[in-house]
Specification:
alpha+beta, seven-stranded mixed sheet, four-stranded mixed sheet, 6 helices, 27% strand, globular
């Protein structure tokens, strides 16, 4: 039987959080992520991982307090479900998702939801996997889809109106990000140094409050790229990726 750990304020310092595991350059990001999580625990935030050294976890919380531009009455929201490497195809993803579904039912939620995409994108859920458990598409913006598993008949979640624009007024390269992901802290610094060296302008907009997250001008989970006012992607960029993109 697989053993799992739920992170709490008491055990968080001694437990790893899967992402960026063992990579020294991302440790500041890991600490920022843990700080973010500690504040979110009071909202009912859950980070559950396999008791192993690997990237195997699910992360979710009530939609009302989730840092995404989505609204829905009495739903849970899944930020991320990740099973990597040799742990794939062993039923672990199913066990993690079933735990979240059962937890939502125990809390008498109306359902549980998450973001997927028509075409595979980084840091976005696998649509076919969620379909297998009965999740259905309830809203969409471009290739991004909001899937929900509803326990009761009624209103389903939807993207907030501001997210539908997928545009901003600023024409410079602009990145929206939050510390929900431990990878972002290092990449923001790397891109800042790259911009300074190459004398280009990059605007960074940090999502650091629930209001900012709910009012995001695009589909947002932890990172969003804009150029010339248009949404480009949700891919977390390093300097090399940015250089290729600009060319």
């Amino acid at each position: 039987m697989n053993k799992y750990i739920n992170l709490t304020e008491e055990n968080m310092e001694e437990e790893h959080i899967c992402c960026a595991i063992g990579d020294p350059k991302h440790q500041e990001g890991v600490e920022k992520k843990k700080e973010w999580m500690k504040k979110k625990l009071k909202d009912g935030h859950v980070f559950r991982r396999l008791d192993a050294r690997g990237k195997i976890f699910i992360e979710y919380e009530p939609l009302d307090t989730a840092w995404v531009p989505i609204s829905g009455k009495n739903y849970e929201y899944i930020y991320c479900l990740w099973v990597a490497g040799s742990f794939k195809e062993k039923g672990i993803g199913r066990e993690l998702l079933e735990y979240a579904i059962d937890d939502a039912k125990k809390q008498k939620r109306n359902g549980i939801c998450t973001i997927v995409s028509k075409k595979k994108k980084p840091f976005i859920g696998d649509k076919k996997f969620f379909e297998h458990f009965g999740f259905e598409v309830v809203d969409a913006i471009y290739d991004y889809e909001l899937m929900a598993l509803s326990f009761k008949k009624g209103e389903t979640p939807k993207f907030n109106e501001m997210a539908r624009s997928m545009k901003i007024k600023d024409k410079d390269f602009t990145i929206y990000y939050s510390n929900e992901c431990p990878y972002v802290e290092y990449e923001v610094k790397e891109l800042s140094d790259y911009a300074k060296t190459n004398k280009i302008k990059i605007n960074f907009v940090k999502i650091d409050s629930l209001k900012k997250a709910k009012d995001a001008p695009c589909v947002f989970n932890n990172w969003a790229n804009f150029y010339k006012g248009e949404f480009i992607s949700n891919t977390i960029l390093n300097a090399n990726a940015l250089e290729k993109l600009l060319k």
